[in-house]
Write a structure and sequence with these properties.
The chain has 435 residues and is an all-beta fold. The chain has one helix and 36 strands. Strands 21, 24, 27, 28, 29, 32 and 34 form a seven-stranded mixed beta sheet that branches. The termini are far apart. 29% of the residues are buried.
Protein backbone atom coordinates (compact mmCIF):
# COMPACT_ATOMS: atom_id res chain seq x y z
CA UNK A 1 0.00 0.00 0.00
CA UNK A 2 2.95 2.29 0.60
CA UNK A 3 3.77 2.01 -3.12
CA UNK A 4 0.84 4.27 -3.91
CA UNK A 5 -1.46 1.83 -5.67
CA UNK A 6 -4.73 3.22 -6.93
CA UNK A 7 -7.90 2.85 -4.92
CA UNK A 8 -9.23 0.48 -7.57
CA UNK A 9 -6.17 -1.77 -7.35
CA UNK A 10 -6.23 -1.68 -3.55
CA UNK A 11 -9.89 -2.65 -3.38
CA UNK A 12 -9.22 -5.47 -5.82
CA UNK A 13 -6.38 -6.82 -3.68
CA UNK A 14 -8.45 -6.68 -0.51
CA UNK A 15 -11.30 -8.50 -2.22
CA UNK A 16 -8.90 -11.22 -3.33
CA UNK A 17 -7.57 -11.66 0.20
CA UNK A 18 -11.01 -11.83 1.78
CA UNK A 19 -12.66 -14.17 -0.72
CA UNK A 20 -12.18 -17.90 -0.10
CA UNK A 21 -10.39 -19.79 -2.86
CA UNK A 22 -12.43 -22.02 -5.11
CA UNK A 23 -9.87 -24.82 -4.83
CA UNK A 24 -9.83 -27.56 -2.19
CA UNK A 25 -6.93 -28.44 0.07
CA UNK A 26 -4.07 -30.37 -1.45
CA UNK A 27 -1.45 -32.93 -0.45
CA UNK A 28 2.02 -33.06 -1.96
CA UNK A 29 4.11 -36.25 -1.91
CA UNK A 30 7.89 -36.21 -2.21
CA UNK A 31 10.24 -39.17 -2.11
CA UNK A 32 8.58 -42.53 -2.67
CA UNK A 33 9.60 -44.29 -5.85
CA UNK A 34 9.81 -47.95 -6.81
CA UNK A 35 9.19 -50.79 -4.37
CA UNK A 36 8.88 -54.54 -4.90
CA UNK A 37 6.85 -57.13 -2.95
CA UNK A 38 8.90 -58.27 0.01
CA UNK A 39 11.61 -55.72 -0.78
CA UNK A 40 12.89 -52.70 1.14
CA UNK A 41 10.76 -49.70 1.99
CA UNK A 42 11.19 -46.23 0.45
CA UNK A 43 10.84 -43.02 2.43
CA UNK A 44 8.08 -40.52 1.69
CA UNK A 45 7.23 -37.02 2.89
CA UNK A 46 3.59 -35.93 3.04
CA UNK A 47 2.69 -32.23 3.03
CA UNK A 48 -0.93 -31.16 3.44
CA UNK A 49 -2.01 -27.56 2.98
CA UNK A 50 -5.01 -25.34 2.47
CA UNK A 51 -5.38 -23.71 -0.92
CA UNK A 52 -8.35 -21.70 0.32
CA UNK A 53 -8.74 -19.95 3.68
CA UNK A 54 -11.66 -22.11 4.80
CA UNK A 55 -10.57 -25.49 3.45
CA UNK A 56 -9.97 -26.55 7.05
CA UNK A 57 -12.87 -24.88 8.93
CA UNK A 58 -12.07 -23.14 12.19
CA UNK A 59 -13.33 -24.73 15.36
CA UNK A 60 -12.82 -28.16 16.80
CA UNK A 61 -10.20 -30.72 15.75
CA UNK A 62 -10.33 -32.14 12.23
CA UNK A 63 -9.30 -35.75 11.62
CA UNK A 64 -8.81 -37.89 8.53
CA UNK A 65 -7.66 -41.48 8.13
CA UNK A 66 -5.37 -42.52 5.26
CA UNK A 67 -5.53 -46.18 4.20
CA UNK A 68 -2.93 -47.63 1.82
CA UNK A 69 -3.70 -50.38 -0.72
CA UNK A 70 -1.99 -51.90 -3.73
CA UNK A 71 -3.13 -51.20 -7.29
CA UNK A 72 -5.61 -54.06 -7.08
CA UNK A 73 -7.23 -52.72 -3.92
CA UNK A 74 -5.68 -55.33 -1.61
CA UNK A 75 -4.18 -54.64 1.81
CA UNK A 76 -0.58 -55.51 0.95
CA UNK A 77 1.02 -52.11 1.60
CA UNK A 78 2.47 -51.04 4.93
CA UNK A 79 3.91 -47.89 6.47
CA UNK A 80 7.17 -48.22 8.39
CA UNK A 81 9.04 -45.80 10.61
CA UNK A 82 7.74 -43.26 13.10
CA UNK A 83 5.83 -40.26 11.70
CA UNK A 84 7.07 -36.85 12.79
CA UNK A 85 4.70 -33.99 12.00
CA UNK A 86 5.42 -30.26 11.93
CA UNK A 87 2.72 -27.70 11.29
CA UNK A 88 2.36 -24.04 10.45
CA UNK A 89 2.07 -21.33 13.10
CA UNK A 90 -0.75 -21.78 15.66
CA UNK A 91 -1.81 -25.17 14.25
CA UNK A 92 -1.21 -28.36 16.24
CA UNK A 93 -1.25 -31.67 14.35
CA UNK A 94 -0.60 -35.31 15.22
CA UNK A 95 0.09 -38.33 13.02
CA UNK A 96 -0.35 -41.88 14.32
CA UNK A 97 0.08 -45.25 12.59
CA UNK A 98 -2.28 -48.14 13.31
CA UNK A 99 -3.11 -51.61 12.01
CA UNK A 100 -6.44 -52.47 10.39
CA UNK A 101 -5.69 -55.37 8.03
CA UNK A 102 -1.90 -55.61 7.80
CA UNK A 103 0.76 -54.07 10.02
CA UNK A 104 0.63 -50.25 10.09
CA UNK A 105 -1.57 -49.87 7.00
CA UNK A 106 -3.38 -46.81 8.35
CA UNK A 107 -2.26 -43.23 9.11
CA UNK A 108 -4.51 -40.99 11.22
CA UNK A 109 -3.91 -37.23 10.99
CA UNK A 110 -5.56 -34.78 13.42
CA UNK A 111 -5.19 -30.98 13.38
CA UNK A 112 -6.58 -28.24 15.61
CA UNK A 113 -6.07 -24.50 15.94
CA UNK A 114 -6.78 -23.72 12.29
CA UNK A 115 -8.57 -20.47 11.39
CA UNK A 116 -10.22 -18.95 8.33
CA UNK A 117 -7.75 -16.06 8.16
CA UNK A 118 -4.59 -17.83 7.00
CA UNK A 119 -3.48 -20.80 4.91
CA UNK A 120 -2.55 -23.61 7.31
CA UNK A 121 -0.32 -26.60 6.54
CA UNK A 122 1.53 -29.57 7.99
CA UNK A 123 4.44 -31.79 6.92
CA UNK A 124 4.96 -35.44 7.90
CA UNK A 125 8.46 -36.97 7.77
CA UNK A 126 9.94 -40.18 9.14
CA UNK A 127 7.63 -42.45 7.10
CA UNK A 128 8.45 -45.15 4.58
CA UNK A 129 6.24 -47.39 2.45
CA UNK A 130 6.77 -51.08 1.69
CA UNK A 131 4.93 -53.82 -0.21
CA UNK A 132 4.50 -57.26 1.30
CA UNK A 133 4.51 -60.50 -0.68
CA UNK A 134 1.75 -60.73 -3.28
CA UNK A 135 1.27 -56.97 -3.77
CA UNK A 136 -0.16 -56.08 -7.18
CA UNK A 137 2.06 -54.23 -9.63
CA UNK A 138 1.15 -50.56 -10.07
CA UNK A 139 0.74 -47.31 -8.15
CA UNK A 140 0.02 -47.50 -4.42
CA UNK A 141 -3.45 -46.19 -3.55
CA UNK A 142 -3.82 -43.91 -0.51
CA UNK A 143 -7.51 -43.22 0.16
CA UNK A 144 -8.62 -40.85 2.89
CA UNK A 145 -11.85 -40.33 4.81
CA UNK A 146 -12.73 -37.74 7.43
CA UNK A 147 -13.14 -34.05 8.11
CA UNK A 148 -9.55 -32.89 7.47
CA UNK A 149 -9.57 -32.19 3.72
CA UNK A 150 -6.48 -33.76 2.16
CA UNK A 151 -7.45 -32.97 -1.44
CA UNK A 152 -8.53 -35.07 -4.40
CA UNK A 153 -6.79 -36.42 -7.48
CA UNK A 154 -8.08 -37.41 -10.89
CA UNK A 155 -8.67 -41.16 -10.99
CA UNK A 156 -10.47 -43.75 -13.06
CA UNK A 157 -13.51 -45.57 -11.72
CA UNK A 158 -13.74 -48.88 -13.54
CA UNK A 159 -16.01 -51.90 -13.49
CA UNK A 160 -18.06 -54.33 -15.51
CA UNK A 161 -21.73 -54.57 -16.47
CA UNK A 162 -23.47 -57.38 -14.58
CA UNK A 163 -25.72 -58.86 -15.94
CA UNK A 164 -25.43 -58.33 -19.68
CA UNK A 165 -27.71 -56.00 -21.66
CA UNK A 166 -29.81 -57.12 -24.62
CA UNK A 167 -31.30 -54.34 -26.75
CA UNK A 168 -31.93 -50.76 -25.68
CA UNK A 169 -32.67 -51.44 -22.02
CA UNK A 170 -33.33 -49.00 -19.22
CA UNK A 171 -30.47 -49.63 -16.86
CA UNK A 172 -32.15 -48.92 -13.53
CA UNK A 173 -31.97 -52.63 -12.76
CA UNK A 174 -28.45 -53.07 -14.07
CA UNK A 175 -25.39 -53.19 -11.86
CA UNK A 176 -21.86 -52.08 -12.53
CA UNK A 177 -19.41 -53.91 -10.30
CA UNK A 178 -16.28 -52.02 -9.36
CA UNK A 179 -12.89 -53.51 -10.17
CA UNK A 180 -10.40 -54.07 -7.39
CA UNK A 181 -8.61 -50.84 -6.49
CA UNK A 182 -11.09 -48.72 -8.44
CA UNK A 183 -12.29 -45.35 -7.27
CA UNK A 184 -16.06 -45.08 -6.72
CA UNK A 185 -18.27 -43.99 -9.59
CA UNK A 186 -19.47 -40.40 -9.12
CA UNK A 187 -22.86 -38.73 -9.58
CA UNK A 188 -23.04 -36.96 -12.96
CA UNK A 189 -26.37 -35.14 -12.69
CA UNK A 190 -24.86 -32.13 -10.91
CA UNK A 191 -22.42 -29.56 -12.36
CA UNK A 192 -19.31 -31.02 -10.72
CA UNK A 193 -17.23 -31.72 -13.80
CA UNK A 194 -17.34 -35.50 -13.51
CA UNK A 195 -17.44 -37.40 -16.76
CA UNK A 196 -20.24 -39.74 -17.78
CA UNK A 197 -19.76 -43.46 -17.83
CA UNK A 198 -17.86 -44.68 -20.88
CA UNK A 199 -18.85 -48.15 -22.07
CA UNK A 200 -16.42 -50.28 -24.03
CA UNK A 201 -17.51 -51.46 -27.45
CA UNK A 202 -17.22 -50.78 -31.16
CA UNK A 203 -19.52 -47.73 -30.99
CA UNK A 204 -18.86 -44.74 -28.73
CA UNK A 205 -21.43 -44.67 -25.95
CA UNK A 206 -21.89 -43.07 -22.54
CA UNK A 207 -24.55 -43.27 -19.87
CA UNK A 208 -25.23 -40.73 -17.15
CA UNK A 209 -25.05 -41.94 -13.56
CA UNK A 210 -27.42 -40.82 -10.82
CA UNK A 211 -27.55 -41.82 -7.19
CA UNK A 212 -25.07 -41.93 -4.36
CA UNK A 213 -21.42 -42.10 -5.26
CA UNK A 214 -20.19 -43.78 -2.12
CA UNK A 215 -17.26 -46.16 -2.17
CA UNK A 216 -19.46 -49.24 -2.29
CA UNK A 217 -18.70 -52.33 -4.32
CA UNK A 218 -21.52 -51.77 -6.79
CA UNK A 219 -23.29 -48.86 -8.42
CA UNK A 220 -26.56 -48.71 -10.38
CA UNK A 221 -26.56 -46.87 -13.71
CA UNK A 222 -29.76 -44.96 -14.45
CA UNK A 223 -30.37 -44.14 -18.10
CA UNK A 224 -30.49 -46.26 -21.24
CA UNK A 225 -27.93 -48.64 -22.67
CA UNK A 226 -28.06 -47.95 -26.38
CA UNK A 227 -26.47 -51.19 -27.56
CA UNK A 228 -26.30 -54.86 -26.70
CA UNK A 229 -23.58 -55.67 -24.18
CA UNK A 230 -22.36 -59.02 -23.04
CA UNK A 231 -21.75 -59.76 -19.38
CA UNK A 232 -18.59 -58.13 -17.99
CA UNK A 233 -18.35 -55.36 -20.60
CA UNK A 234 -15.90 -52.79 -19.15
CA UNK A 235 -17.29 -49.48 -17.90
CA UNK A 236 -15.15 -46.53 -16.79
CA UNK A 237 -15.47 -42.96 -15.62
CA UNK A 238 -13.01 -40.17 -14.81
CA UNK A 239 -13.63 -38.91 -11.28
CA UNK A 240 -11.99 -36.82 -8.59
CA UNK A 241 -11.21 -39.30 -5.82
CA UNK A 242 -10.37 -38.58 -2.19
CA UNK A 243 -6.81 -39.83 -2.54
CA UNK A 244 -3.31 -38.62 -1.90
CA UNK A 245 -0.82 -38.49 -4.72
CA UNK A 246 1.22 -41.61 -5.53
CA UNK A 247 3.23 -42.68 -2.46
CA UNK A 248 5.15 -45.37 -4.36
CA UNK A 249 4.84 -47.73 -7.31
CA UNK A 250 5.06 -51.49 -6.91
CA UNK A 251 7.23 -53.14 -9.53
CA UNK A 252 7.56 -56.79 -10.43
CA UNK A 253 10.20 -59.04 -8.92
CA UNK A 254 11.45 -62.59 -8.58
CA UNK A 255 11.86 -64.13 -5.15
CA UNK A 256 14.27 -66.77 -3.81
CA UNK A 257 13.32 -69.19 -1.03
CA UNK A 258 14.94 -72.30 0.45
CA UNK A 259 14.78 -74.54 3.55
CA UNK A 260 14.08 -72.84 6.86
CA UNK A 261 16.89 -74.89 8.43
CA UNK A 262 19.90 -75.48 6.13
CA UNK A 263 21.18 -79.03 5.71
CA UNK A 264 24.28 -80.01 7.68
CA UNK A 265 27.35 -80.76 5.54
CA UNK A 266 30.91 -81.63 6.54
CA UNK A 267 34.35 -80.34 5.63
CA UNK A 268 36.38 -82.47 3.26
CA UNK A 269 33.45 -84.47 1.87
CA UNK A 270 32.09 -84.40 -1.68
CA UNK A 271 28.63 -84.96 -3.12
CA UNK A 272 26.69 -83.85 -0.04
CA UNK A 273 22.99 -82.95 -0.25
CA UNK A 274 22.09 -79.28 0.24
CA UNK A 275 18.64 -77.65 0.41
CA UNK A 276 16.39 -77.02 -2.58
CA UNK A 277 16.32 -73.51 -4.10
CA UNK A 278 13.00 -72.13 -5.37
CA UNK A 279 12.70 -69.09 -7.65
CA UNK A 280 9.29 -67.41 -7.91
CA UNK A 281 9.23 -65.80 -11.37
CA UNK A 282 6.83 -62.92 -10.68
CA UNK A 283 4.05 -61.96 -13.08
CA UNK A 284 3.46 -63.65 -16.40
CA UNK A 285 6.26 -62.89 -18.84
CA UNK A 286 8.32 -60.86 -16.38
CA UNK A 287 11.28 -63.15 -17.07
CA UNK A 288 11.37 -63.22 -20.91
CA UNK A 289 12.73 -65.70 -23.42
CA UNK A 290 16.52 -65.41 -23.58
CA UNK A 291 16.88 -64.27 -19.96
CA UNK A 292 19.44 -66.13 -17.87
CA UNK A 293 19.07 -67.46 -14.33
CA UNK A 294 22.46 -67.72 -12.62
CA UNK A 295 23.00 -69.48 -9.28
CA UNK A 296 26.35 -68.66 -7.67
CA UNK A 297 27.82 -70.13 -4.47
CA UNK A 298 29.31 -67.25 -2.49
CA UNK A 299 30.93 -69.33 0.28
CA UNK A 300 34.64 -70.10 0.11
CA UNK A 301 35.51 -73.78 0.02
CA UNK A 302 32.15 -74.93 -1.39
CA UNK A 303 31.09 -75.67 -4.98
CA UNK A 304 28.45 -77.60 -6.89
CA UNK A 305 29.19 -81.30 -7.39
CA UNK A 306 27.41 -81.21 -10.74
CA UNK A 307 24.15 -80.18 -12.38
CA UNK A 308 21.17 -80.78 -10.07
CA UNK A 309 17.73 -81.99 -11.10
CA UNK A 310 15.72 -78.86 -11.96
CA UNK A 311 12.05 -78.40 -12.84
CA UNK A 312 9.21 -75.87 -13.04
CA UNK A 313 6.17 -75.99 -10.78
CA UNK A 314 2.77 -74.30 -10.25
CA UNK A 315 0.25 -75.41 -12.89
CA UNK A 316 0.16 -74.79 -15.73
CA UNK A 317 3.94 -75.09 -15.69
CA UNK A 318 4.57 -73.63 -19.14
CA UNK A 319 7.85 -71.96 -18.17
CA UNK A 320 10.90 -73.73 -19.61
CA UNK A 321 14.69 -73.40 -19.58
CA UNK A 322 17.50 -75.07 -21.46
CA UNK A 323 20.08 -77.41 -19.98
CA UNK A 324 22.05 -75.83 -17.17
CA UNK A 325 25.67 -74.82 -17.77
CA UNK A 326 28.10 -75.49 -14.93
CA UNK A 327 30.99 -73.04 -14.72
CA UNK A 328 34.60 -74.32 -14.94
CA UNK A 329 35.19 -73.71 -11.23
CA UNK A 330 31.79 -75.29 -10.39
CA UNK A 331 30.83 -72.22 -8.37
CA UNK A 332 27.84 -71.28 -10.56
CA UNK A 333 25.14 -72.75 -12.79
CA UNK A 334 23.35 -70.78 -15.54
CA UNK A 335 20.03 -71.57 -17.22
CA UNK A 336 18.60 -69.77 -20.28
CA UNK A 337 14.84 -69.25 -20.58
CA UNK A 338 13.35 -70.92 -23.67
CA UNK A 339 9.65 -70.37 -22.86
CA UNK A 340 8.40 -67.43 -20.78
CA UNK A 341 5.63 -68.02 -18.24
CA UNK A 342 2.09 -67.17 -19.36
CA UNK A 343 0.67 -67.20 -15.83
CA UNK A 344 1.65 -65.36 -12.67
CA UNK A 345 4.06 -66.72 -10.06
CA UNK A 346 5.49 -69.70 -11.90
CA UNK A 347 8.23 -71.47 -9.98
CA UNK A 348 11.60 -72.95 -10.89
CA UNK A 349 13.41 -75.27 -8.49
CA UNK A 350 16.89 -76.68 -8.11
CA UNK A 351 15.98 -79.93 -6.37
CA UNK A 352 18.35 -80.86 -3.51
CA UNK A 353 21.60 -79.92 -5.28
CA UNK A 354 24.79 -81.76 -4.33
CA UNK A 355 27.83 -79.79 -3.16
CA UNK A 356 31.50 -80.48 -2.45
CA UNK A 357 32.93 -78.94 0.70
CA UNK A 358 36.70 -78.56 1.03
CA UNK A 359 38.81 -78.90 4.15
CA UNK A 360 39.48 -75.16 4.06
CA UNK A 361 35.78 -74.29 4.43
CA UNK A 362 35.04 -72.56 7.73
CA UNK A 363 33.20 -74.67 10.27
CA UNK A 364 29.92 -73.00 11.26
CA UNK A 365 29.62 -71.00 8.04
CA UNK A 366 26.56 -71.27 5.82
CA UNK A 367 26.78 -72.19 2.15
CA UNK A 368 25.10 -69.22 0.51
CA UNK A 369 23.79 -69.04 -3.05
CA UNK A 370 22.96 -65.77 -4.83
CA UNK A 371 20.49 -65.84 -7.73
CA UNK A 372 20.71 -63.29 -10.56
CA UNK A 373 18.18 -62.77 -13.36
CA UNK A 374 19.55 -60.98 -16.42
CA UNK A 375 18.05 -57.81 -17.81
CA UNK A 376 18.15 -55.94 -14.52
CA UNK A 377 15.26 -57.97 -13.09
CA UNK A 378 14.72 -57.54 -9.37
CA UNK A 379 15.53 -60.51 -7.11
CA UNK A 380 14.65 -60.56 -3.43
CA UNK A 381 15.59 -63.18 -0.86
CA UNK A 382 19.32 -63.36 -1.66
CA UNK A 383 21.31 -65.14 -0.45
CA UNK A 384 19.67 -68.54 -0.05
CA UNK A 385 21.51 -70.43 2.71
CA UNK A 386 21.35 -74.03 1.50
CA UNK A 387 23.73 -75.73 3.95
CA UNK A 388 25.52 -75.31 7.27
CA UNK A 389 29.15 -76.42 7.42
CA UNK A 390 29.98 -78.68 10.35
CA UNK A 391 33.44 -79.69 11.43
CA UNK A 392 34.79 -83.16 10.72
CA UNK A 393 37.74 -85.46 11.43
CA UNK A 394 40.70 -85.54 9.06
CA UNK A 395 42.53 -88.88 8.93
CA UNK A 396 46.22 -89.37 8.20
CA UNK A 397 48.40 -92.46 8.28
CA UNK A 398 51.92 -93.63 7.80
CA UNK A 399 52.10 -96.54 5.36
CA UNK A 400 55.02 -98.94 5.91
CA UNK A 401 55.75 -101.67 3.39
CA UNK A 402 54.37 -105.11 4.20
CA UNK A 403 55.47 -108.35 2.59
CA UNK A 404 53.33 -111.02 0.99
CA UNK A 405 53.13 -114.24 2.99
CA UNK A 406 54.31 -112.77 6.33
CA UNK A 407 52.16 -112.54 9.42
CA UNK A 408 52.07 -110.06 12.32
CA UNK A 409 53.73 -107.26 10.35
CA UNK A 410 53.41 -103.75 11.85
CA UNK A 411 51.17 -101.21 10.10
CA UNK A 412 51.23 -97.45 10.30
CA UNK A 413 49.65 -95.13 12.84
CA UNK A 414 46.14 -93.77 12.06
CA UNK A 415 45.70 -90.19 13.30
CA UNK A 416 42.24 -88.54 13.38
CA UNK A 417 42.35 -84.78 13.91
CA UNK A 418 39.41 -82.47 14.63
CA UNK A 419 39.06 -79.60 12.18
CA UNK A 420 37.40 -77.57 14.93
CA UNK A 421 37.07 -77.81 18.67
CA UNK A 422 34.02 -79.83 19.65
CA UNK A 423 33.94 -82.08 16.60
CA UNK A 424 34.20 -84.90 19.12
CA UNK A 425 32.11 -84.33 22.23
CA UNK A 426 31.53 -86.14 25.48
CA UNK A 427 27.78 -86.28 24.94
CA UNK A 428 26.99 -89.91 25.72
CA UNK A 429 23.50 -89.50 24.23
CA UNK A 430 24.72 -88.25 20.87
CA UNK A 431 26.63 -89.60 17.92
CA UNK A 432 29.52 -87.14 17.99
CA UNK A 433 31.51 -89.21 20.51
CA UNK A 434 31.59 -92.35 18.33
CA UNK A 435 34.26 -93.03 15.72
Amino acid sequence: MSLGGSALLLSSLLATIAAPAAFAASTTITGGGAIVPGGPAVSVTIKGSETGLADWPAGGPLTSVVSVLDAGGASTIEFTGTPTITSSMFVTCTAVLSTVVVTKDTLTITCSGQTDTRLDSFTITGLSVKAISGAAVGAVIANWTGSLDLGSVSATASGKIVPGVVGAVASSARTVTLNGGSAAFAVTDIPNGYSKLAIAGGTAESVALTGAGAATTTQVVNGVFLLNHEVNVPVSQTVMAKRLGTLATVGDTTAVTTCTTPNLVRQGINNQTACWIDLNLGRAGYVPVGATLTYTIATAGAKFSGLPYAYTFNAPADFAVGTGVLSFDRKSITYTVTTASSTDFQGFELNWPKIDVGLTAVSGATVDVNVAVSGGKSVIGNPASIAQIGSTLVGSTSAPTVLIGSNDQPTGMIVLTETAAGTLSDDVNGATNIV
